C-alpha cells in the first residue's frame, strides 16, 4: 500500500505534467517549398549545333579563292560551296541570329525581367511561341534587331562579294588552256551537287563551344550595330523570338517541339531553294571548267548571299564597275537561261 506522502508526490507530478501539456504550443507547420530556381540563359544543343553549322559554312564559303589554278581546284571549290542543305542553312541562320540577339545587354535584361516569376515566365514564353512578333514589345528589341540585321547581313555580303570575285574569275581564267577543257564526268558532278545539297553538315566543336559561352554570357561576342527600327523581316523576328525563349529557359531540349518551328521562314526558304535549282540547271549545261566557275560564283555564292541579305532586309550593294564589259543575261532561273549564260562566257576575255 502506497504511503500518503508518496501518493501526494505522484499526484503532484501528474498535475504538473497536465499543466505543462496544456501550455505547450502546437508544432509549427513545415515551411513552404522553395520556389524553383530561375533558369539560366541557354539554348539547346540542337540549336547550338545548327548555329555552328551555319557559321562554319559561311566561314568556309567566304574563303573560296577566285585564283583558280586547274580543274581540280575548281571542282574542290564547287564542292565546298554547294555543301549546304537549304533548310538546315536557314535554321542555322536563325539560331545564330538568336545567339547574336542575346549579346545585346538591353534585350537580355529586358527578357530576364520576366524570368523570376514562374507563372509570368511561362505566360511570356507561350505568347512568343504562339506569335513570334510578341517579342517586339520587350525592352531592347530594337537594339537586338540591329545586331541581328548587321551580323547576318554582313555574312550575306561576304558571300556576295566573294561570289562577284569568283564570277569575274570565270572570264579571267580563260587566259589559261586548262579552263577550256571539258569537265570530266559531268553527270556525276551534277549528281554530287544534288547529294551535297541534301545532306546536313556538321558544325565545328570549337565554334559550338564559343557560341555556348556567348549565350551564357561568359565570353560575349564583340558586336556593334545601331538599333534597327521596325518593321522587321520574319527572319529577324524569329531570331529574337528564339533568343527570348532561351533567356526564359524555354529553348532547352524539353521545349524543342515548340521552338523548332520558329526556325523556319517560308520566303527565305524559297529563295535558297531557287538558288539550288539555278545551280543544278547551270551545271547541267556547263561543259568547260570556266563555266563551272561561273556557276559557283553566281548560283552558289552570290545567290546565297543575296538570299541572306534579303532575309534580314539589307539592300544589296551595287557591284563595282567590271574590268570587262559582260553581256547582260536576263533569263535567270531557267534551263534556257543557263545555256545562255554558258554561251555568254565563251570568248569574253579582259
Automatic annotation (TrEMBL):
Residues 338-350 have a biased composition (Basic residues). Residues 317-350 are annotated as: Disordered. Residues 1-26 form the signal peptide. PROSITE patterns: PROKAR_LIPOPROTEIN. Keywords: Signal. This is Uncharacterized protein.
Amino acid at each position: 500500500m502506497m504511503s500518503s506522502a508518496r501518493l501526494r508526490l505522484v499526484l503532484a507530478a501528474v498535475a504538473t505534467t497536465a499543466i505543462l501539456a496544456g501550455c505547450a504550443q502546437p508544432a509549427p507547420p513545415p515551411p513552404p517549398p522553395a520556389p524553383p530556381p530561375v533558369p539560366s540563359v541557354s539554348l539547346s544543343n540542337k540549336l547550338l549545333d545548327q548555329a555552328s553549322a551555319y557559321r562554319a559554312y559561311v566561314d568556309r564559303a567566304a574563303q573560296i579563292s577566285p585564283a583558280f589554278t586547274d580543274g581540280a581546284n575548281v571542282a574542290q571549290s564547287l564542292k565546298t560551296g554547294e555543301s549546304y542543305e537549304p533548310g538546315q542553312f536557314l535554321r542555322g541562320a536563325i539560331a545564330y541570329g538568336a545567339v547574336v540577339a542575346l549579346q545585346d545587354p538591353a534585350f537580355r535584361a529586358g527578357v530576364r525581367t520576366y524570368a523570376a516569376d514562374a507563372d509570368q515566365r511561362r505566360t511570356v514564353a507561350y505568347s512568343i511561341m504562339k506569335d513570334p512578333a510578341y517579342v517586339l514589345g520587350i525592352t531592347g528589341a530594337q537594339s537586338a534587331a540591329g545586331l541581328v540585321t548587321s551580323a547576318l547581313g554582313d555574312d550575306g555580303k561576304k558571300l556576295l562579294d566573294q561570289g562577284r570575285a569568283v564570277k569575274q574569275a570565270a572570264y579571267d581564267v580563260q587566259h589559261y588552256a586548262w579552263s577550256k577543257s571539258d569537265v570530266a564526268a559531268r553527270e556525276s558532278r551534277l549528281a554530287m551537287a544534288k547529294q551535297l545539297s541534301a545532306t546536313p553538315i556538321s558544325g565545328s566543336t570549337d565554334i559550338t563551344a564559343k557560341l555556348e559561352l556567348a549565350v551564357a554570357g561568359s565570353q560575349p561576342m564583340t558586336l556593334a550595330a545601331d538599333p534597327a527600327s521596325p518593321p522587321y523581316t520574319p527572319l529577324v523576328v524569329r531570331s529574337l523570338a528564339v533568343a527570348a525563349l532561351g533567356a526564359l529557359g524555354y529553348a532547352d531540349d524539353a521545349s524543342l517541339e515548340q521552338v523548332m518551328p520558329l526556325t523556319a521562314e517560308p520566303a527565305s526558304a524559297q529563295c535558297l531553294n531557287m538558288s539550288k535549282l539555278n545551280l543544278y540547271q547551270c551545271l547541267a549545261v556547263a561543259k568547260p571548267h570556266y563555266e563551272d566557275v561561273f556557276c559557283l560564283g553566281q548560283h552558289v555564292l552570290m545567290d546565297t548571299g543575296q538570299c541572306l541579305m534579303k532575309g534580314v532586309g539589307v539592300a544589296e550593294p551595287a557591284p563595282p564597275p567590271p574590268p570587262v564589259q559582260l553581256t547582260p543575261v536576263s533569263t535567270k532561273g531557267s534551263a534556257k537561261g543557263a545555256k545562255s549564260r554558258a554561251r555568254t562566257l565563251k570568248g569574253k576575255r579582259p
